[in-house]
Amino acid sequence: MNLRIIAFFSCLLWLSGCASTPESAESDAQFNEVESLKPKLESVDQIDPANIPDVEPVQVQSVSHSSVVKSYQRALKLISDPAVKARIERRLAGLAMVESEELQVQGETFEEQKLAMSKFDSTIKAYKKLLQDYPNHPDNDKVYYQLAKAYGLKGHLEASDKLLGKLLERYPNSSLASEAYYRRAEFLYSNKKYPQAGVAYERVIKRNDNPKTVTNARYMLAWSLFKQSDYEASLDEFTQLLDQLAPTKEVYQSLTRNQKALIEDAFRAMSYAFGYQEGGKSVVQYFEKIGNRHYESLVFSSLGLLYQSKERYQDAADVYLAYVKRHPLAADSPEVFARVIKVYELGRFPSVIIPAKAQYATDYGLSSRWYAAQAEAISTKHTQRLKDYISQLASYFHTRGQKAKKESKEQKDYFNQAIAWYTVYITDFPNENDVAEKHHRSGDVHTLLGNSKAASSSYLKAAYDYPDYDIEKRSAAGYAAVVAFQKIAEASKAEQNIRQKIDQSLKYADVFGNDSRSIGVLVDASESLLNLNEYEPAREIARKVIVKLIESGKSEYVVDQSWNTLKWQPYSSRKHRRASWVVVGHASFELADYPQAENGYFQALRLMKKNNELYSSLRQRLAISIYRQGEGLAKEGKNQEALNNFERVLVVVPEADIKVQTQYDITAQHLILKQWSPAITKLKAFRASYPKHELTKGIREKLIFAYEQSERWPDAANELTQMANDERLDDEQRRKALFQAATYYEKGGKTPQAIDRYRSYAHGYPKPFIVNLETQHKLAELYKARNETNKRKYWLKKIIANDKNAGSERTDRSKYLAAAASFELADDHWRSFTRAKLTLPLGKSIQRKQAAMQKVIKEYTKVADYGVSEFSTASTHRIADAYYRMSKDLMGSERPKGLDELELEQYDILLEEQAYPFEETSIEVYETNIARTVDGVYDDWVKESYKKLAKIMPARYAKEEQVEGYVDVIQ
Asked: Where are the TPR repeats (predicted)?
């Protein structure tokens, strides 16, 4: 019987904790059903001791019995000495006995056994003959014993027993007495005469003259008592037997096979004895009575195994638990506890297996009292079992948590227990090959609990502290750590946590660069750096990702499963290239590296579908990047290149939000480049497209400027007219625009439009006075050019009136214009005067002529009053001319008809008398005009006055030296 030390345990906490679950209730029901149907122990009559041989197995030797027998038989015939003859006969009987036993042992067939039985007959005959021939021989006790043995081996047990009785009766002190008693006891026992057999076994024990026989006798005495149901007495005998054969563990280990078999059978009998009582409770009570024994665990285990063999699993567990409770710090306590767990597994009691393993790990773990007591003698087997149980517990609670309802208290409890057992394993077995995986799984559970900080710590250890850990699992742990840091950063938004996530991401990508997930990690790191305004490092990382992906040519995705806890997203080269180009674009944009920003956005858009949420915004960023390049070039004075970039904005991103600004800036560049025609075209288009845009307010001015520069005066005037009519502008702006419009119409040859705008200005804007006066002057001039005399005169009169009423606003210019207007109007009277003829009757015509002259003098006097030299000399000259012409017209007037010569002469004298005052007055006025030379005035009108005086008074004014004198004076 191969016995092992069986462990047992007590896990009341777990048992009570699981009792209320549906699973445990079902298991308990199953257990109760099993217990109600479990086999009972065999009755006492059904249990027999093992067949323990009293000697070692017969070693059959190849000996020629016949030759020896023949030798003794020849000698017997030759010997006459009775004593010697008796010895030879005994030897021959003994040889016959040996040969019979050999035949019995070696015989395999019926015929061979039949031969052996016939040989026993010869042996019996030989021993009987010895008793008959030598009835008083001192060694007959041995003959009786051998004869009884022969009968016994032949199967005649009663005959054998009688012979043994005679031996004891006749030879009570024989050295074979103990053996005889023992054989008689066996016969009694085999005939179920247990009390008598017990007495016989006791005699053997009392004689105590053969240790081997005494041992067997005590063994059978215990069985005899057992058969009588005297279990306590039987147990005492078995205990004495055990104490005798194996007083210590060391002695037990040195026993022979038969001795160990005897002890094992003793355990079996004791198991039944305790089983017929109260099982484990009886064992405990028994050893409390007799004291501790080193083989107690074997007794408990034997009973437990007996129960197991009968499928009485709870009884078996109770036995093991009883031992553990009795000897919690015993070296073999864990082994017995382990047997409890095995029994639960055999009995299929899942509700108690896990609590049992938990109790095992608690009671016999590295932090337990038991471990402290046994620290120097811990077996490798125990350590391995401890690791297995702790690992199983962690996995069990991990799995149960995954199956529980999400975010329930039950799930949290399971996960917390899983973490606790992972922690125990990591703490107790830090150097195990699978401790990295325990860190990994602990991180998974922390993740499922939402404890990202603790998860990150576990993942980091699994990823970086155990280089021998499977590289793919290390990579998965490293990635999980990055994910945990990502969650921490997202939850807190603290810059410190974000930077910590970035650092871990870069570390992951550096260590696990060949893992497909490293690409996504780098992309996320670059995006995070971008959000922290770390533009240069963000762009650098993004560029590395792009180069790496392009060089690898990867476009497929890889899925990595991680223990059914965390499922990583597939990675896509296209997705990550797109994200990296976005980072390059944004970072470059913020760094004002707009060419690189443009390239980044362009590449990202190439990898993006139009329905992507970023598509529109990136298009706008692309437009701005191109626009900013144009701005920079414009600032550098590279206006044509700036223009090209602005125009690219509209080509590349026609829907750009900055489209309006760009179009506006395009016109500005055209203007700067003096590209008037395209500038005008685009300015007009801009205004037509965006009539209400803020920038449109400046279009008109730019158009006017472009028209001016390209000398498109009427077009400029049209724009100015619109300004003048724009009520949104203030009066001053409108006034200036109207005046400028009139000017440009005039300049562009659009006289009617010019007159219209000047006229509107003259009527609408009396202030500033001088500008209004100039406008009236313009109108007068334009009407003059068009020969519209009356209209001209109207404005000449307006000029004169306005100047007259100007008051303090009068200027030299206003006086000049008024003087000019007055002079021109006076010239009209002059022409009327010159056209008036002196006719008969002369009196009436002279009156008309004189009235006209007075009007001329009056008007020219007004002109002279302006004090404008140019018109004062002219007016003075005209007045002198009026007097002179009156004199001449009188002298040249028509003579009445019918006058004789004398009358005619007298008539002429009268005319001269009338004309002379006029001539004299004219001379005086002419001289007044030429006198202005003293003041430096020597214009054409003064010259004309000189000419007139030279004609009238040649002697005085026709002299050259006099003229030169005046000239000298002027000089």
From this structure: 623-656
